[in-house]
Amino acid sequence: MVKLLFLLTIGISKNGGLLNSCNGLTTTALQFGIPILLLVYYAGDIGDNAFHMVGLVTEPVLQGLGIKHIVMRDPAKVKQDIAGAVTLANSSKRPVALLLTRAVL
Amino acid sequence: MKRFECLQAIAPLITDELFVCTAGGATAEWNAVRPSDGNIQVKTLGLCSSIGLGLAIALPRRKVFVFDGDGALWMNLGSLATIGLHQPKNLIHICWDNHQYESSGGEPTAATADNLDFAGVARSAGIKSSRTAITIEELQESVSHALSHDGPHFICTRIEAGRAEAPPLRYDELENKYRFIRYIEETEGISILRIAMPASYLLK
Predict the structure, then answer these.
(1) Using CA atoms, how far apart are residues B133 and A7, in angstroms rounded to an integer?
(2) Which of A61, B23, B186, B201 is 20–30 Å from A14 (CA)?
(3) What pTM was computed for the model?
(4) Tell me, what's the ipTM?
């Protein structure tokens, strides 16, 4: 049994909120090295009929920020994805994003 | 009144409180007046009140000061509503209002119109102990009151524009972070930073 959480901030938003928070993520979370688990609803994902522009830029923006992410599409892998993201956030002292699609909600 | 004079005037009232300092001139000046590992710098304009709120919630028995600027507060005015929602008794939020974005060249903020009553906004957001200080004596009395009464407290302090000659910060943000965390660990008797064992070391 691996201990998952010792100290971690969790941020919850839709991807529109993620885009709004880019400055804070850059100049606080990344610049100070703060581990944060970002739980982000992936609006505009394939199959979603709204917010397609937000969906289009979400992953490139995360990549540009240097924030690793997992797109969660398989309900059977939810625990594994969360555990992996928490471990990476803590060890790297950086934010890690989980993009939550409708399939896992 | 000048910000540096204000900082010097309130420093004797301070003991072991934590300070979250805005991305502005107040940070270097406060570190010159009261150097301490209990001071943390903020690099995101506007976020010091949110970070201070989180700290106050996490350490409810510790007084937490936020040194904000009017330009920074404009960028995150919603934090007043969040502070009003959570009602942290130990949070003392001071806004140094010089009517300008001093760090980036002195461009005027919306407060220049003089129609904005930050303390009124804070009060309307649920921060009942909200005041405006325009003299050193009012500021000292407001800080003394905040230190001896449950908060949250908000003090808008009207100051002249201009920075005092203060040395640059001794530590960059990473060293500041670690020293700040270690200071909290030592003074609170808690453990925050822990290093996990590499996965390859774990017993199967």
Answers:
(1) 38
(2) B23
(3) 0.91
(4) 0.87
